Amino acid sequence: MKKLILFLLLVGSGSLLAQRTITDTITSQKLNEDREIKIGLPPSYDKNKSQKYPLLILFDGDFLFDAFQGALSYGYYWDDLPEVIIVGISQNKNNERETDCTVDETTGLPSEKGADFFEFIGMELIPSIQKNFRAAPFRIAAGLDTTAGFLNCYLYKDQPIFNAFISMSPELPTGMEEQIPERLAAVQQTTFYYHCTADGDMKKMRTRIQAMDAEIKKINNPKLNYVYEEFKGASHYSLVLHAIPSALYQIFSVYQPISTAEFQEKIAVLPSGYVKYLTDKYDMLEKVLGLKLQIRINDFKAIEAAILKNKAYPEFDQLSQLARKNYPKSMLADYHLAQLYEKTGDLKRAIKSYQTAFQKEEIGDLTKDMMLERADALKGAAKAKAEEPVEEVPATDAPAETPTETPVEEKKSE
């Protein structure tokens, strides 16, 4: 209930997490007109000057902007979703959304103003955002019905300008239910594709959406991350509020902190390589999403738990090196070294490492008092071990020598 209340508050007020919204106008040569856009900058944008952010382009920005911003704000609060730059394109004047998405009735390809709008996105809007804001190379496109069908046209390019597509109840142009599966089967870059419908959706659209899903499900392409949903009890318009968080959590699943399920199902069952799992997770964030992030403290704790659970104590050395790289002023690295020495029986070096950790900055639930307590406990254990009496081996009589020959007297009696 608390999370629901927080979500409603965030949807109603983008200021809670200090998001900044800018309304701007782009003079487009392709469209031969000025087009209004709304830009939502992440909460940390002004503070974190070196960070780049994924770019979310919203067709139908007039009514999708606030809905996406609210869902993202909620995800930011729990650190489940990364901060992104949101760009909403205004399409509410003079029937713009229909003319912007004009396609040829025979080929299904952008035509007339639709062709100009198609080029406006790739050749004017995105370059302008990249020039003026710190946008990462990872880009998402999202739209509803008419605009959702239109944004699929970007998949017809050999190298699509978008990495992820959120296609909500798309109104599919001619032949798209056959052509999009073919394009998705051929993609060479990691591509996220989400689309959906609802049982209250328009029947004609829903039938074609389901047909496209059936074809996409036949694809075996490791570069494709695909999710399709049909929402029960939702209408054509209400499905949007179901789809937005679902799509965002699909696309950014790799971003989320290590969960209990991920720990139990993917990490704890590994025979080794727990630290490698952690570095691979954050390398994937940088490679796929363009995000170079500091490893979370809770993720360090998850790997620590896996090492202890599986008694893979030598991996504490690697974890310590990783901690020193991410949190050089904190006690985390020396704490992990102390665990390595303690678990392998080197109490003297473990005590020294805990004492070194005491001199560093506290972090997470690691405190100076904890380091002192652990060092003192090991001193006591080391002292008790040194004072243990040495067990004496009782003396025994020397064994009788085995005769090498029969005594002379015995020989005579024979």
Could you name the CATH class of the largest domain?
Answer: Alpha Beta
Count of helical segments?
16
- Looking at the chains present, what oligomeric state does this protein adopt? single chain
The figure for the number of domains is 2
Helix content: 40-55%
Major sheet characteristics: 8 strands, mixed
CATH topology name of the largest domain, in short, is: Rossmann fold
The assigned structural class equals alpha/beta
How much of the polypeptide forms β-strand, as a percent range?
15-25%
Cα-atom Rg, whole angstroms?
32 Å
CATH superfamily of the largest domain: Alpha/Beta hydrolase fold, catalytic domain
The total strand number stands at 8
Please, what is the average pLDDT? 90
Rounded to the nearest angstrom, the distance between the terminal CA atoms is: 106 Å
What strand line-up does the widest sheet have?
1-2-4-3-5-6-7-8
Task: Indicate the overall shape.
Answer: elongated
Give the SSE order as H and E letters: HEEEHEHHEHEHEHEHHHHHHHHH
Report the CATH architecture of the largest domain: 3-Layer(aba) Sandwich
Poorly predicted tracts of residues: 1-16, 398-414
